[in-house]
Design a protein that fits this description.
Ubiquitin-like (UB roll), Four Helix Bundle (Hemerythrin (Met), subunit A)
Length: 698
């Protein structure tokens, strides 16, 4: 039995390794760069590079790569060996500070959204010293940012780091106003819960839709799904348990704090949850986790599906983003304190989040928008597309008391004049969790539940960090000029509650009446699809906020809008083309072959006795013939809809055509094919069924 504490993080060039392999001077200089953002001297970089290379080689590495996160949604890497020629004709193992700090990959084929011309190939990767290097296989992976020759961000990490710095800057202003002058840094932390499906590899290989798109485009409902609720938290099957055991081991070697594993709601669905990490590290770890989940699955004859909705009619997969803020001393700013000022400070940061979520509902919604996630949001299995906040009854009562200047009926009746009277201390879990809320307070953090399972968590956290930074900036600007700090603080919190309480909802987010109330009475936004929300990235208020904090330039925002819409269009077009191919070359011929067998059976029976009715066979022949015709018609309609896309005048109009026409035609074709599956003999059906896929792993 392996001792976890001995091998945990053994493949990470972390603080323990740096202390052991760097001189005290170099180590302190590097820590100053990591903690305070100080510039790294080239001599220090050379020393770090040499130590990093020696450690990596000792652990079996032969190559290094600048590991980055382009706008493809996955990670990227180009491997270079450590070898350099020596004068005697041999080789030496070398790695310099220059190679550590900056790389030069070919950036021409990565999405840029018009930031660069086709002929412009050069891009740069820049070392992110705040994320530890690690070994994957025989390669030293160095986490980096990725930018164009002109300096524009071409990745998800650069804006994430910018957003973290923006929030840090504004949070420090607030904390210093409360007298916390010893605080040097405020960081956001995240714990992303990762949902996924495991299916048999042999089954997967027989499904073109899964191989090309990551989800099933056809599939009739099986006799049993998740109706019995017998999979959720159920006994983990031996094959899955073996997979989880190896997955944990591989993640722990990389210092990833995988903590919780269990069966999820749908058959074949599972969840992995880590312990919280600083947001940029959590982002790196989640990207690694998704990659390793799929690699380990292959070793067990399984396939790990990360699509948000791989199977119709059963629970889809999300990724709950548990977000909080903490000081460098480890003080959680979303945890109520024991003293009046701590209480006031907590309430101010809480109000900053409430204001941010309300003011920038659109940014939070579009940060999780993908073609896959559109199938999940609002489907009574995930939060609705309407953004709202759940606070719980007790905290809600506190805010109401402040707003109305009335006594709070808690453990003691207390007039809620902030900074004077004590907010009664309450426990983390003072109310039940609300699984239907998109943005729920859970005692000392917020759970942002709208993310899809395949999403990078970077996008959501960029928008969340930036929006909260803007709220804190507004507060700091006012409080720094206030003649009476306590009075100004109290009135500002009251105003925030009054102006933004319409975003707070503690009820059932799945209820249709809530959607009606949210949109018609409260004026909340309801962007149901990616084409509905993504163009709002370029709304004037959003551009102004994101550029003012230096998170994005206007050009970077325009490029990201185009890239996300283009990704949406390409995703659905690939799905539609796959449907056409499957319907024309496999489903229709299979149904037709079964129809012919039935017709031959009728003819054979009639040849024996022409008085035989053959009602069963005749009825099926008629039904299947009609279905074959319907499949052919719907396939042609879908093909025509795809051709019409070429006439789109812009990426926005193409996305709208896909939403309004292509997806409708895809749904109609699916209905015809799924009905045909229910009446076609199993031996003729060309693919594994839902029953096969969902219940084959034991």
């Amino acid at each position: 039995m392996k001792n976890i504490s001995e091998y945990f993080g053994c493949l990470v060039f972390d603080d323990r390794v740096m202390k052991a392999n760097l001189s005290a001077k170099v180590y302190q200089s590097l820590k100053k760069t990591i903690d305070e953002g100080a510039q790294l001297d080239i001599s220090v970089a050379n020393a770090v590079a040499a130590a990093m290379k020696d450690w990596a080689v000792a652990n079996g590495a032969t190559h290094y790569t600048h590991w980055f996160q382009p706008l493809t949604g996955i990670t990227a890497e180009k491997h270079d060996s450590f070898i350099s020629p020596s004068p005697d004709g041999g080789v030496i193992m070398e790695f310099s500070g220059k190679e550590l700090i900056q790389g030069e990959p070919d950036a021409s084929s990565f999405p840029s959204g018009g930031l660069r011309a086709t002929f412009e190939a050069r891009g740069y990767t820049a070392w992110d010293p705040t994320s530890y290097a690690f070994i994957k296989g025989k390669t030293l992976c160095i986490p980096t940012a990725f930018c164009s020759y002109g300096g524009e961000a071409l990745d998800k990490k650069t804006p994430l780091l910018r957003s973290m710095e923006a929030l840090n800057k504004q949070a420090l202003r607030i904390l210093h106003l409360f007298g916390n002058d010893d605080v040097k840094c405020v960081r956001t932390s995240v714990g992303p819960e990762q949902e996924y499906f495991l299916i048999d590899k042999e089954m997967y290989d027989k499904r073109p839709d899964l191989r090309f798109t990551g989800r099933t485009l056809f599939g009739a409902k099986p006799p049993k799904g998740q109706e019995m609720d017998d999979h959720y938290f159920g006994v983990i099957k031996p094959r899955v348990a073996a997979y989880m055991e190896e997955l944990n081991e591989e993640l722990w070697k990389l210092g990833i704090l995988a903590k919780t594993e269990h069966n999820e709601v749908a058959p074949a669905q599972h969840e992995l949850a880590p312990i919280y990490s600083t947001t940029n590290i959590a982002t790196d770890h989640n990207q690694l986790t998704m990659e390793i989940m799929q690699k380990v699955a292959a070793k067990h004859g399984l396939v790990c599906l990360l699509h948000e909705k791989p199977f119709a009619g059963v629970n889809g997969s999300g990724k709950h983003n548990n977000w909080s803020m903490a000081t460098d001393a480890g003080v959680n700013l979303l945890s109520p304190g024991e003293t009046p000022y701590e209480n006031a400070q907590f309430l101010l940061f809480l109000c900053a989040v409430i204001k941010a979520v309300d003011d920038y509902q659109d940014l939070l919604r579009l940060s999780v928008a993908t073609a896959g996630n559109d199938h999940r949001l609002g489907a009574n299995e995930a939060p609705p597309a309407v953004v709202s906040i759940f606070l719980g009854d007790e905290l809600n009562a506190v805010l109401e008391a402040i707003e109305n200047n009335t006594p709070y009926a808690g453990t003691q009746k207390t007039q809620m004049k902030l900074g004077v009277d004590v907010l009664p201390k309450f426990n983390r879990d003072t109310t039940d969790r609300n699984r239907t809320s998109p943005f729920a307070f859970t005692g000392n953090k917020f759970e942002f539940r709208m993310l899809g399972s395949s999403n990078s968590i970077a996008c959501a956290n960029i928008m969340l960090n930036s929006a909260v930074a803007e709220s804190l900036k507004i507060y700091a600007d006012r409080l720094e000029k206030a003649e009476n700090f306590e009075d100004a603080l109290h009135e500002m919190i009251r105003k925030t509650i009054k102006d933004h309480k319409h975003i707070i909802f503690n009820g059932n987010g799945y209820d249709d009446t809530w959607i009606e109330e949210a949109t018609e009475k409260r004026g909340l936004l309801n962007y149901r699809t990616t084409p509905d929300c993504m163009p709002h990235l370029l709304d004037a208020k959003n551009v102004k906020m994101l550029t003012s904090h230096g998170v994005f330039s206007e050009a970077e925002l325009k490029s990201r809008c185009d890239i996300m819409l283009e990704n949406y269009c390409k995703t659905v077009v690939i799905e539609a083309n796959t449907m056409v191919d499957m319907a024309k070359t496999e489903i229709a011929p299979a149904v037709d072959a079964y129809t012919m067998e039935l017709a031959k059976t009728i003819a054979a029976k009639k040849a024996v006795d022409d008085t035989l009715t053959c009602n069963y066979e005749s009825g099926l022949v008629k039904k299947l013939s009609k279905l074959t015709d319907r499949i052919a018609i719907k396939t042609e309609e879908l093909e025509n809809a795809l051709v019409e896309l070429h006439n789109a005048e812009s990426i926005i109009s193409e996305a709208n055509m896909i939403r309004d026409v292509v997806l409708v035609k895809m749904g109609e074709l699916r209905l015809a094919c799924d009905e045909a599956e229910t009446v076609t003999a199993k031996k003729y059906w060309p693919f594994p069924t839902y029953g096969d896929l969902l219940f084959s792993v034991r």
